[in-house]
Amino acid sequence: MKEAGGSDMLLLEGQPPKYRQHGHVTPIPNEPLLTHDTITAYLKEICPAHHWDKYVKTGDADFAYAMGATDRFRANYYKQVHGFAAVFRIIPVKILTLEQLGVPAKLYEFTKIRSGLLLVTGPTGSGKSTTLAAMINEINEKYARHILTIEEPIEFVHPPKKSIITQREVGEHTKSFASALRAATREDCDVILVGEMRDLETIALAVSASEMGVLVFGTLHTNSAAKTIDRIVNVFPPGQQPQIRTMLSGSLRGVVSQTLCRKADGKGRVAAQEILVSNTASAAAIREGKIAKLNSIMTSGGLDGMVTMDDALNKHLEAKLITAKEAYMKSIDKNRFAEAMKAEEAAAGGAAKAAH
After folding, report:
1. Is the pTM of this model over 0.85?
2. 329: which of 50, 90, 311, 337 lies 20 to 30 Å off by Cα?
3. Comparing C-alpha atoms, which of 33, 29, 63, 60 is closest to residue 48?
């Protein structure tokens, strides 16, 4: 997988091993179907004993696996209808910088903030962890702060540079995200990274910490800034929603929603990022529950560094980084890219006829 430039390896009992390369799942050549005995031997060999016991009992386990000093993987074990299964996601040992990722300038500015809530969102496999690692690395290189990460499992390992780095793994060093966040208020932290904000208690504690003068980075599996705000607010019972909207309007500094697009030349992927920045208009829309207004606020907020997902995709399309079909598939407003996709398909059809 590593030699082929893959991102994930998928092992399922009764199937040959496969890996994901630039978004496509491909069988590994010349590998036989995985029998129960074979996959059990593979999975048990590298799994810590307490995680294996949990997996056998519950059908799920997550941990990070290091193969020497150069290779690190996030492992997810699960059971499925045909037996055992696992997915291994490669974690780059070298943390890419914001410059190497080619991110918008606003992400550099976000790392300079001293307090508040910053959310990096997107579907699974959209590069959220890579972007967050680069932002934490930027703070680590330039500022003397105490950075705490709470993850399940720890993915990128940050060596201390200018900052002190404390990394805690849920299940290993702390019982849950919520218990680690509760303790964090007494750990003299300047920056907290919350690996997943998936339940009411974790979200409430993260928002509270951001109001107490800490910079909190969080992730959610949402694909737009508006849906992110909706997800956070809707976790709370109706009676508490006006209060959380008010808290959020005061503490939120920005939302970066990202998706990975296949490059037009087929060599790798490029991130498209929607950016919502907190200003008077966006804070008022959140406080008043007028979430539908956020898109137009982002459209007109270019000077503040805001950009909608469709504008980010269009920029990549104009730069010929991605195809019109890819822009159409990843876009929010499909109509915007429908004509370009038809033209592209017609041109491809014409070229194929001419070649024939």
Report:
1. yes
2. 90
3. 63
Closest Cα to residue 205, out of 228, 185, 230, 224? 185
CATH code for residues 8-91 = 3.30.450.90
DSSP class of residue 291?
G
Task: Name the residue among 147, 152, 110 with its Cα closest to residue 131.
Answer: 110
CATH number of 98-330: 3.40.50.720, 3.90.226.10, 3.40.50.300, 1.20.1250.20?
3.40.50.300
- Cβ pair 43, 26 in contact under 8 A: no
pLDDT in tens, 173-201: 999 999 999 999 899 999 999 998 989 99
C-alpha–C-alpha distance, residues 305 and 228, integer Å = 18
Contact status, residue 160 vs residue 115, Cβ threshold 8 Å: no
Let me know the angle formed at the C-alpha of 98 by 94 and 101, rounded to the nearest 5 degrees: 80
Please, what is the average pLDDT of the chain? 93
* Domain range list for the chain: 8-91, 98-330
Pairing relation of β-strands 146-151 and 164-169? parallel
